[in-house]
Amino acid sequence: MAGRDSLPQPPEQSPGDTGAGDDVGVRLKAVRKLYGWSQRQLAGRAGVTNATISLIEQGRVSPSVGSLKKVLDGIPISLSDFFTLQLDGNPQVFFRAKEMPRVGEGSIEQRLLAPDNEEPSLSLLYETYPPGSDTGPELLTGEGDVGGVVISGRLEVTVAGESAVLGPGDGYCFSSCRPHRFRNPGEVDCVLVSAKSHPIV
DNA sequence: ACGCCCAGAATAAATACGCC
DNA sequence: GGCGTATTTATTCTGGGCGT
Q1: Torsion of CA A45, A46, A48, A51, to 10 degrees
Q2: Host H or E run for residue A28
Q3: Could you tell me which residue ranges the HTH cro/C1-type domain spans (predicted)?
C-alpha cells in the first residue's frame, strides 16, 4: 500500500533524500552556523531533539511544514527569509586598499569597493582627482543616483548647469540622469568617497 | 560537547470494507 | 455511488547511546 509520500523516487535515492530535502537541510545548517549554534543548541531553542536537526541537515528526512516552522521558531528568521536566504558562503566584508581594483580610464583614479559583488545595489568608489583633472568636456549622464563626500582638496561639481566648489566634509547627491561633470580646480589632489546606486561595471 | 546512528513510537495518507 | 470507519503502510520524530 502506498504511504503518504507516494511520489516515485529515483532508484539511487534513499527515502526522504529529495532535492528539496537537501536544500532545506543545507539551508538549515548554513543558518545554524550563521548563528554559531550547535545542533543541540538549536534543538533546545526549537523544542525538538538534536537527532531531528541532524536528520534534516543530512537530507535524510523532508520535514513537514509544521516541523520546519517549529525549528525555525527557534531561529530569528521567517519561513520566507529562510527560503530566500543567499547561501553563497560568507561574502567578503572588509577590503584592503590593494583589493580595490582601479576602474575607468584617464588621470582620475577610481577604486571600486567590493569588486566581486556581481549584482550590487550600491557601488562605492574611492576617487582621487589630480590638480586640474576633470571628467571631460562632455557632461556625463547615467542611471540611478550618485553621491559623495570630499575627504581632502577641492572638487568642482557641475549638475544641470549649476556649479559648486566643494571642500573637505562637503558632499553632493543627485540623480545621475542629470548632466553632470567633476573637476579639481585646486593645487593638490582631491580625494573623495562616492557612491552610486547603479553598478559601475 | 559534538554529530551521527538505531530502535521504537507517533503520525498521516491511501486503501478496504460495510452501511445507507 | 456516497459516506464513515477500520486497517495498512510509509514516513517522521524521539530517546538513548556511540565514537570522536
Answers
A1: -80
A2: helix A19-35
A3: 28-82
Is A191 exposed, middle or buried, given 0-12, 13-18 or 19+ CB atoms closer than 10 A? middle
Find the farthest-apart pair of alpha carbons in chain A and give their distance in angstroms, rounded: 87
CB-based contact A148:A114 (threshold 8 Å): no
Round to a whole number and report the distance in Å from the CA of A8 to the C1' of B19.
35
Residue nearest to nucleotide B12 (CA to C1'): A4
Asked whether strand C has any atom less than 7 Å from the CB of A1, the reply is yes
Q: How far apart are CA A161 and CA A130, in angstroms?
A: 23
pTM: 0.52
CA distance A60 to A58: 5
Q: Assign 3-class secondary structure to A47-67.
A: CCCHHHHHHHHHCCCCCCHHH
Measure CA of the first residue to CA of the last residue in chain A; give whole Å: 59
Q: Running along chain A, 201 residues long, what does each successive block of 10 average in pLDDT? A: 30 36 70 74 76 76 73 74 64 74 81 68 86 87 87 94 93 90 94 81 47
Cα A50 from Cα A43, distance rounded (Å): 5
Cα-Cα-Cα-Cα torsion A104, A109, A114, A118, nearest 10 degrees, comes to: 0
